[in-house]
Amino acid sequence: MLNLTRIAPTPSGFIHAGNALNFILIYTLARHTNAKIELKIDDIDQNRSKDIYIEDIFETLKWLRLDWDLGACNKNDFLKNYSFAHKQKILFKVILSLWRKNPDIFYACKCSRKGINGIYHGDCIKLNLELEKEKTALKLHVDNDSNIILRNRYVNIYSAFGDITLWQKEDFCSYQFASLFLDEDHKTSLIVRGDDLFNSTALQLYMARLFGFENFLQTTFIHHMLIFDSNGSKLSKSNGSNSLASWRKNGKKPNELFQKAAQIIGVKEFWQVNTKEDILTCKDELDMFLRTNGQKVSSAF
Q1: Which is nearest to 59 in space by CA: 48, 43, 75, 37?
Q2: Residues 31-48: tens digit of each pLDDT
Q3: Is residue 176 part of a domain?
Q4: Which of 196, 226, 221 is nearest to 208 (CA)?
Q5: Is the overall model pTM greater than 0.90, yes or no?
Q6: Are residues 155 and 57 in the same domain?
Q7: Quick one: 245 and 191 in the same domain?
């Protein structure tokens, strides 16, 4: 049963059309299945998070006329009550507890990102280093037979990621673990992501299996197609592709985003879908989309 999903943008740039498509799909599937929606803004990297980008998230959701059930209601509420800055101590305690339970697969690492050429497989694992701010990161060692099968797709975590950073040298939690833990803790039952995040899902499922995060292992995942720019490149906040702030400034309406979402879920006359009310009438297509795209981790590991 689908009880809770989440809209989880990162405030590291202005929201673009690809982000908005994801928001619409999450909203539509949640309302269709009577699942609640949590707004879970991911500002784990405080160096990249900006107030102007947090404000843009709320402005975009208002422009799309998408509501939610849990989480902050505006920028000030988010910064005061929901920011990851308030969760770092909790996350560190959780990681330390897991380290004590699984000492053989955790280790401190002094290697820098620039010094790592390609996938990292644990040069520091035998050095028995201490975990020190600005000097070492905390890593999770990954075995070379670490396979995840999600529906009919296979990912070898060892080959795709190597050893995984859980706690950064700069003294904050990694995105992958923070996102995983909060989904486990909040009992998220549906996660809708772009297909470019398929490997991230596999990585989080691998960690969930190691750490006994049973709620996450029961989650239904949907990975949807992406929107590309005129050059065939994936939209990115870093290069400002299709900033919706500029759409709003120019008086543009979000109709084509709802049409694209309708096309993805299989609506034949998708050009007639212009609002959230329109797309929610496509009940048969939504049922079929959930049946054919909902994915759970295989028992095979």
Answers
A1: 75
A2: 999 999 999 999 998 888
A3: no
A4: 221
A5: yes
A6: no
A7: yes
Kindly report, residue by residue over 171-192, the tens digit of the pLDDT: 999 999 999 999 999 999 999 9
Residue 140: give its domain's CATH number.
Answer: 3.40.50.620
pLDDT digits (tens, 9 = 90+) for 86-125: 999 999 999 999 999 999 999 999 998 776 767 888 889 9
Q: What's the average model confidence in pLDDT over 254-264?
A: 96
Contacts 24+ apart (CB under 8 A), 70-76: 70/4, 70/36, 70/37, 70/38, 70/39, 71/38, 71/39, 71/40, 71/41, 72/39, 72/41, 75/51
Out of 112, 133, 167, a domain closes at 167
Distance of alpha carbon 270 from alpha carbon 23, whole angstroms: 18
Task: Quote the tokens at residue 9.
Answer: 């943008």
Quick one: 16 and 45 in the same domain? yes
Domain range for 104 is 88-167
Residues 6+ apart with CB under 8 A from 155: 147, 148, 198, 199, 202, 203
Residue 173 lies in a domain: no
Digit-coded pLDDT (tens) for 189-211: 999 999 999 999 999 999 999 99
Q: 36 has which bridge partners?
A: 4
Same structural domain, 64 and 98: no
pLDDT number for residue 299: 52
Instruction: Determine contact, residues 9/57, Cβ cutoff 8 Å.
Output: yes
Which residues have a Cβ under 8 Å from the Cβ of 86 and sit 6 or more positions away?
none
What spatial distance separates the first Cα and last Cα of the chain, rounded to whole Å?
Answer: 24
Statement to judge: residues 65 and 116 lie in one domain: no
How many domains, the chain? 2
* Helix, strand, or coil (residue 1): coil
Distant-in-sequence, close-in-space partners of 120: CB < 8 Å, separation ≥ 6: 111, 139, 162, 163
